[in-house]
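Justification of resources, computational component.

The compute hours requested in this renewal are based largely on the per-chain cost of generating structure records like the one below. Each record pairs the submitted sequence with a full structure-token output. That output is archived, and it is also reused by downstream analysis tasks.
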Amino acid sequence: MNSTIPCKVFLFTRPGCIYCDVLKMFLEAREIIFEERNIGLDDAARIALLETYHSSTTPTLVILTSTHAEVLEGFDPDRIDEILSAA
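The structure output for this chain reads:
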């Protein structure tokens, strides 16, 4: 996926999460534009993660397309590539 494909990507992170840092580097290396939402610093982000996306772990990657939201918990590069290439 490149930054021209129409979807929105949110990355929910928390301070001290090594997998969050790895996932950020993964997305940046692929030039994927994403919005980081740090649940340790932003209560609204924490609430959205829990209530909207039904996740309680970081990293959680949310990929919003015109048809659905894909929620991925943890760091699974193969699955991320698969979803982003189909977006």
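The longest helix spans residues 18-29. The mean pLDDT is 90.
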